[in-house]
Amino acid sequence: MSHDLTELARVGRALEEAHSLLETERERLEQQHGRTPYDAVAGSPAQTLHGITDLSRSMSTALEQLALAAGYLALGMDERGTRALAMARREPLSFPSGADRMARPLGEATVQAMELIRDLGFFPEETAIAIDVALAAPQATYPPADWSTYHRQERTWSEGD
Q: Residue 132: enclosing H or E segment and its boundaries?
């Protein structure tokens, strides 16, 4: 990605929109479920709230890193700006994996935010693929009901790389 501040502003607005959509969804889910005790069942109210919080936090962090990069670049501190931009472009932590915790169907605002980020082209291509997988999942998959099967599948996936 270039150091074009106009382009960085466009990406920043998209990240802010995704964050806003996810926060709206988090607030809706909190009102719907209230305070829920911790529950380790995929798709439970507690895991759904945990997942939406993770998604939202990931977008907030990416936006903060992007703003830092833009600030450095605007000040002519290109080396620092380039490093901060690289940090902003890393695969976002818990995005889209937070959706793996969430009950299906995913809320409309969650889907909109995930599609917005997928189509943005800012993060690594693997992020877009992971978003498509998360959106297509018919049910919550994490945490798994059977950890031993989950770990075997992880090994199989990593060996396939």
A: helix 125-136
pLDDT tens digits for 83-142? 999 999 999 989 999 999 999 999 999 999 999 999 999 999 999 999 999 999 999 988
CA 83 – CA 20 distance, rounded (Å): 26
- Could you give the CA distance from residue 33 to residue 43 in angstroms, rounded to a whole number? 12
Question: What residues contact residue 77 under an 8 Å CB cut-off, 6+ apart?
Answer: none
Interatomic CA distance for residues 132 and 24, integer angstroms = 22
Residue 152 has pLDDT above 90, yes or no: no
Rounded to two decimals, what is the model's pTM? 0.87
Q: What percent helix, strand, coil does the chain show, rounded to 5?
A: 70, 0, 30
Q: Note whether 145 and 47 are within 8 A (CB).
A: no
The CA–CA distances, whole Å, from 58 to 44, 63, 144, 151 equal 21, 9, 22, 25
Pick from 23, 111, 96, 25: nearest CA to 60: 23
